[in-house]
Amino acid sequence: MAFDYVLERELAFNETDMAGIAHFSNFFRWMEIAEHAFLKSLGVPPVVQERDKFWGWPRVRASCEYHTPIRFGDRFEVHLFVKEIKQKSVVYFFRFRKALPDGGFVALARAEMTSVYAGFDVPTQSMSALDLQEEILSKIEEAPAELMKAARNTRP
Predict the structure, then answer these.
(1) Domains contained in the chain, number
(2) What is the rounded distance in angstroms from the CA atom of residue 15 to the CA atom of residue 23?
(3) Which CATH number characterizes residue 36's domain?
(4) Residue 108's pLDDT band (boundaries 50, 70, 90)?
(5) Is residue 16 part of a domain?
(6) Is residue 120 in some structural domain?
(7) C-alpha gyration radius of the chain
(8) Which residues are CB-neighbours of 85 under 8 A, at least 6 positions away?
(9) Is residue 52 part of a domain?
């Protein structure tokens, strides 16, 4: 069972704003990319379609607290942690860190996102939250409390 995932990236030019730093909205995009990569790494498809029905993970809450800017070409990581597993949703905690040449890291941001497991019926245009399936529950677990505490306390 897994409780974390690390996505490593380099900041692309098109992800910067007029000041040459990462635009704030990208952090939300990177959270979703990390979540999808995490699920795929466990063999859980982020979206399933069967005829006119879809299953997926819409977000119901997301927040991000920024600490340090990141600039074009900087290498960074998005570290996803499973903070909490509920009956119909998963709460993720994210730690963003910039890699330094000496092998160390600088904290960029901290974030949380809640994703609900849901089904969407195209003909009726209805969406409803679903209980997490055993197939999913057997592959993920909540991160240990001491690890979550250390991840949350990472500051610049």
Answers:
(1) 1
(2) 6
(3) 3.10.129.10
(4) very high
(5) yes
(6) no
(7) 17
(8) 91, 132, 137, 140, 141, 142
(9) no
Q: Structural domain of residue 35, as residue ranges?
A: 4-43+62-113+129-152
Q: How many CA atoms lie within 13 A of 54 on its CB side?
A: 12
The backbone torsions φ and ψ at residue 31, rounded to the nearest 5 degrees and listed phi first, read -60, -45
Residue 137 falls inside a structural domain: yes
Rounded percentage of the chain residues whose pLDDT exceeds 90: 78
Query: Two tokens at 4?
Result: 């974390």
* Burial profile 109-142: b = 16 or more Cβ within 10 angstroms, e = fewer: bbbbbbbbbbebeeeeeeeeeeebeeebeeebeb
CB atoms within 10 A of CB 49: 12
Q: How far is the C-alpha of 68 from the C-alpha of 76, rounded, in Å?
A: 12
Catalytic residue among 4, 17, 52, 131: 17
pTM of the model: 0.92
CA distances from 153 to 40, 79, 96 (A): 28, 14, 12
Active site residue 17: yes
Residue 156 is predicted with a pLDDT of: 53
